[in-house]
Structure formats: C-alpha cells, structure tokens
Amino acid sequence: PLNPVDNPYKTKFAANVVSNNKYNFVTFLPLVLFEQFKFFFNLYFLLVALSQFVPQLRIGYLVTYVGPLVFVLAVTMAKEWHDDHARKKRDKEANSQKYARLSPDGREVIPSAKIRVGDLIIIDKDQRVPADMVLLRTTETSGACFIRTDQLDGETDWKLRIAAAPTQKLADDMGIFGLHGSVYAGAPHKDIYEFVGNLTVEHGLPGSSGPVTAPLGAENTLWANTTLASGTAIGYVIYTGKDTRAAMNTGQAKTKVGILDTEVNRLSKILFLVTLILSLAMVALDGFKAVWYITLFRFLILFSSIIPISLRVNLDMGKTFYSMGIERDKEIPDTVVRNSMIPEELGRIEYCLTDKTGTLTRNEMELKRIHMGVMAYTLETSDEVTRHVRNNLKDKVFESDSAAQAADAVESKPAALAVGHGKARRDMPQRVFDMVESLALCHNVTPTAESTHEDASVAVSKPMSYQASSPDEVAIVKWTEHVGVVLAERTLTSITLRLDALIPASQNGYGTAPTLKYDILQVFPFTSESKRMGIVVQSQHSGEIYFIQKGADTVMARIVQYNDWLDEECGNMARDGLRTLVVGRKRLSKEAYKRFEHAYQQAKVTVLGRAEAMQQVVADFLESDLELLGLTGVEDRLQDNVPTTLELLGNAGIKVWMLTGDKVETATCVAISAKMVKRDQLIHVISGLKSAHQVNDALETLRTVGDCCLIIDGDSLHVALDFFRDEFIEIAVKLSAV
Description:
738 residues; alpha+beta; nine-stranded antiparallel sheet; six-stranded antiparallel sheet; 23% strand; Aminophospholipid-translocase
C-alpha cells in the first residue's frame, strides 16, 4: 500500500541491515580451523603434532611439535578476527546512520537498520540512500534530481532521476497520506539498470476522479549506496537489506588464498613424498622387521623437519608487516588494507584490466568537429556556424521587438550552397540551424540553478553550467551555447532555447535575446543496448512536432535516409580519436503522433516485457526514414601521466587490457596515444567477423603473428567465445595488450 500507515507488509520483507562479516561468535573457531586444515601443509603438521600423544610414536618434547602449529594458527586467527572486526565495525556504522522518516505526525529520526519496506524516507543532499526506493517527490518543481552512483557501478557521472508524476504534483509532502493506492515492484534481481513497476492511485489525487496508474522505471528509482547530489528527495522503500540491488551484487566474504600459499602447499606435498620414500628406504634397509610400520611412522616424524613449519610462520608475519607498511606508506596516503591474508599478491599482478572513459581519460569532453555531408565545421570555424544561425533566424518573426532590432543589425551574407531537404530545397543557414537546434534539444542536460537567470531571455556573458549523466551531451550543449543557441531552461515538460546569436556584437554579450520554447512530449533515454537517445518535441512558436534522435553510427545507419558519406566520415573521425554521434530528425503530423502516443501508453503499463514492448513501438512508429542532419565528433583527453604509467606497467611485464565502447579506429588511436602499444609493436585488428570459419582463420593468423597489440570488436569476440572459447583465451592471455 502507498500509505505507510496501513501497510501490513512491513515485517514480511528482509530487515534493512548491512552484513558483510564472515563469522559470528559460534562459527568463528570451526570455520577458521576448517579453512586452515583443508590445506595439506597445515593438516600434515596437525597429524604430526597429534602423533606425539601416542607413546610408541613420541620423539623428543611435545612442545617442539605442538608449539609452532599453535603459534601459526594463533597468528592466522588473530588476522581473521581483526579483518572481520573491521568489517563488522563498517557495517555497524552503516546500520546506525540516522535518517528522517515521514509520518502523519511529521518527521521522525530512525537508524538505517529500522527502515522497512513501505516507509517514506527523506534524503538530503550528499546523503547516502539507505535502501532501494521509488522516488516520489523532490524539492525541484520539475521532479528531477541527480544522484552519484560511484559506490554502486564505479561511474563518476551524475545520473538524472525523476519523481513519480502523481505524487510530485501534490501541493506538499503531507499530501501523500491522503492518497489511497499501491506500488507494484517486480521481484528483487541484480540488474541495476532495469526496474519494472507501477504506481496506482485509486482515489485521493487532486484533480482526478478515477484511478490513475503511472509506470515506474529505473529513472524513478534511488538504489541503496547511491548518493543524492542535488536537492532533497522523498523515497518510498521497496527493497531492503539483502534484497537491495547493492547487496545482490555483493559476493559473500570468503577466505582468499594467494598464489604463494598454493605454491607452498604444492611443494609441501612433494616434500612429503620425498620423506615417505626416505622412510621406506630406511625401513627396507632394516629388513622390515616385526612392527616395521611403527618404525616407518617414527622415521616420517623424524624427517618432518624437511617440511619447514617455520616458513609458514615467516610468511604470516611477513604478510602482517606488508599490510602495516601499505597503510603507513606516505606516498599512498589513506590506503586501507581490506584483507591482510594476501598483500604479497600485489607483487604478482600479471594483468591490468581497465575501462577507457573516465579511467584512462578525463571524462571531460569537447566537441571538436561537426560534419553535415557537404560541409564540416571545427571549433576554429564556429563563427561561421553562428553566422549561418543568424542568417536563418533573422527572417523569423519573434514576439520580442529587440529580437527584430538585433536581427536587422546582423550583417547579412549569402549562403554558401543549397542542399536538398525532403522534397523542398533549402539553403545552408537553414540546414546548419536545424543541426544546431536538434543538438540543443536532443539530450538529458539541465542548466544548473545558479546559471539560470530569473528571466530566461536575458543573456549574460558568463558561460552557463550544466548537469547531465553524459559528458558527451554536456560538450554538445556547450558547443551550441558557443555558437549562440543557449539551453536557458529545462523542466520535465519544456525546453527553452535562448538565441544569443541574434544579439549584436556591439552589446558585448549583454541584452535581451529572443527565446524559442518547446514542449517535451517524450524522451527515450540512452541505454547500452539501444546505443541511441531520442526526444519528441513540439515548438510553441510553429506548432510543429519533431522526433530527434542521436546515437552510434552502427544503429543510426539503418534508421536515417540513404546517404553516401556517413560511413566514410565516421571512419575519418574515429581515426582522429573522436567519439562519433549521428543526428537525425523526422517531422511528425499531429495524427501520426497521436497514433504513436496511444500505442506507447499501452506498452508503458505492460508488466511483462515492458522495455521490449516500448522499444518495439518506438521502432515501428518513429525509427524509420529520419533525415540525416549530421555527425558530431567529441574528444575525451587522456588523464595526466597515463602514457607513462601504462608504459612502465608494460616494461614490468604486466599485460594491459582495455575495454571501450568506441569504434575500432578510435580504440586504435587511444591505444597508441596511451602507450599501450610498445614502440615498433604490431597492431593486429580482428573486426566484423560473423562466422566460426572466419574466426578460426583469424585465430590461426594471430598464432603466427606472435606478441602484438590485439584489437577485437564486440561482434567478433562474441563469435570467438561461442565457438573457440578456450583457443581464443589461450592465445589472448599471452599478448602484452588487448
């Protein structure tokens, strides 16, 4: 039930307790002993020590056999207790963090561990989200807020989240208690990018007479361990404790065993065989007399010192000092050793696995180039883009008189050439403006509060600042601002563009600029599966409805109209290390949009296969025969010292593997500039393979090439792992860079 007061399910679900510890009071001793004695090395010395309690087998003092073993076990147990105690301490801190719960009597402060499914929790800026929630309200009138997910998925970009529409429209927070309805949420699962749910309000919603059902998706959720980056939010708890996405993606803590321990264990087995052979030889030389097996055991115990238990003592003490040394190293301050059982493994690393964007690169994008088939523009020629925008806009009629004056003041220059547009002909200024306008509209970027002026039409010389989950989109919006089309305001339902291009240069960036306002009818966010992002907008000025979409050339090539230049230009930009996006647009009649909207609403409330149904409707009604407006190329520069670092790792024999969503040509360019490729080293590319036969031939070629930098695309890798998994891995792991 939506109202937490009459919620009978609160105690039905898991408690909201974080628990990462391995042991409790009862299980500590048996589990630690089991983990230790499952290794032959320790088991051998246990049996030798126990043998000294048998009078016929006793040799020397009991303490000389039992003492070292007890010491080794004591050190190991002390380290395990210390590590587990640290885990419990961190868990206790997380479970006791205080949160404000909204009730009919107002706010009440409770610890995180007391939160239950159905609670309304208030999250403030920079506060950690304690459980998985549906976002009901935010302090932003638009219902939007941003979260940081770096503790969940490792990404540093801010993610946009949107409050459920029925509750965001309420006059105040306490209005939630006047609603009668329910929240449907699917069963808990691991996927942090997928959520299917519905918010149903039966009655109590102002302005609505009947039941209202709003679909809920991942964009309406706040997952546990994310952090609210803007405003204040109210969330309805749907998953707690072990049912949260964060907990389901966290493996159970287990005892880790290093390569060195495994090697010592294997060598101890070999030494045991040596002692057994020696003991048999000694018994044989004595002629296998009466109770020879007792003699055999006595010789085994005598020769047990060949397997040095002191080595195990030294290893354990060494690991303890390594851990202390790492934490106290002034060159790597604030480093925490989470596991003191395997610190020596740092010296045996063979592979460095790295993402590209935001890890090797700065994640600070800059739009470097735009190509529109017959013309290309760079940052250096952006003045020409501004001129085209002015020439296109000066003939339009705006409400603002100052706009007309500004337009008259603009120097008129003839268009460079005319190009085809649908069935009509249009000049270059129109085509350039369509591209700039589409780039300024098709995104999920929001101007920040401090950069938006009270009057959106007033231009100021200070550059705007923006929030978005994608740095590519911020780079594109900054470029449109640079050429005079500014994203002045954005809400959930509208976008306002300020046309600074029409302000005369004599006003030095100050003055009243005309604005264009658009209603947002639909937004189709980018996903790693679709590789594209779309928006449907309606101009308040002309009433025209446009579907604008941008995405990877691999998917956009089949969506846009036929052209003969896209593939070639994508390749050219990729070879220059630029990330490419293809932009297309389609004009919709009101009747066509209504047909789409009806089908899309039906798909949005489907419970089973909702995402697939929604995507199919978009594909059937919108994603065909788009006019190709152009291609953007965005640069993401490498972080400081990345080339030097990767070169040093390579010289140390560490193999570097990089994952990137870019084209093969871009990946090649980045690999060279990041010094993943050694001087004079061969770069071997495997791409576009569709069949097992092709992959087999490629692997045979790769075998003969020897050590090289391998660049392989996703399609080829998929086929290789399906048909030649072991063969591919056997070859790839030997290469110095992949």
